[in-house]
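Review form for a predicted model. The reviewer records the input and the model, then writes brief findings.
Reviewer: anonymous (R2)
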Amino acid sequence: MSDKLSFRVLGFITTPKRAKKALTLFEEEKLPIQYVINASGTASSETLDILGLGSPDRSLIISVLTKNLSDKMIRKVHNELKFNVPGNGIGFTVPLKGANNIIIKKFEELDSNEEENPIRKGDTVSEIKRVIIAAIVNQGYSEEVMNAATEAGATGGTVIHGRQAGNKEISALWGVGIHEEKDVVMIIADAESKVSIMQAICRDCGINSEAKGVVLSIPLETVVGLNTPL
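Model under review:
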C-alpha cells in the first residue's frame, strides 16, 4: 500500500489567533504539525485599518500529510476558520515526491480510513494556476522586495525572519555571506504573473544588489482563501 501513498506539504498563513484554532483542528484529527513559524504581513498599517484586519502579525503552519488527509484538512480549516472572508487566511498544498518510510507507515492506517476526495481524483497535478514566489534577502530589504513585486502585479506577501546557515567562507565566495540574518518574503501569485514578478524582484533586490536576493518559485496544487471556490 505504501507505494500508492502520495504526500503533500500543507500550509496555512493566518493570524496567530486563528492559527491556534487550526492547531486544535489538527489535534482533534490526531494529525501532526511539523512547524509553526511566526511571520508578518506586508500590508501597511493604514491598509490594515481600512480593511479592519488589525495587527499584521501572521503565523505560518506547515505539515506533511497524505493527499487524502491534506484535502480533508484544507477543507476543514477553510470552512471552520472562514477563509472565504478576505484577510482571514490562506491555505495551500504542494506535491511532495518522497517521504521517510517511518512517516509512510504512520500514515497508512490513517489514510486507509479516508474516502477519496470527490473534488479532485487521481494523483496527478492539474494545470498549475498559482505559485509561491520566495525571495530570500538580507534582513531589512523585505519592503524593497514587496515594492518591486507590487509594481509587477503582486497583491501581498508574508515575511519570515530567518538566519543563514552554512560555511561563511564558501558563502562569501559566492557573494551571499554578507549578512547572516535573512528575510524570506513569500508571495502567492498567479502562474502567468510569476515571471514578471520574479524579474522585478531580481532587478531591484537580486544577488548583485545590497539585498543579495535569491528568488525561487514553487508550484501550488490547491489554494484557498484568495476569493477562490474550494
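Findings: Strands lie at 7-14, 35-41, 57-66, 89-96, 130-138, 158-163, 181-190, 214-220, 222-224.
Further findings: The two ends are 29 Å apart (CA to CA).
Recommendation: see findings above.
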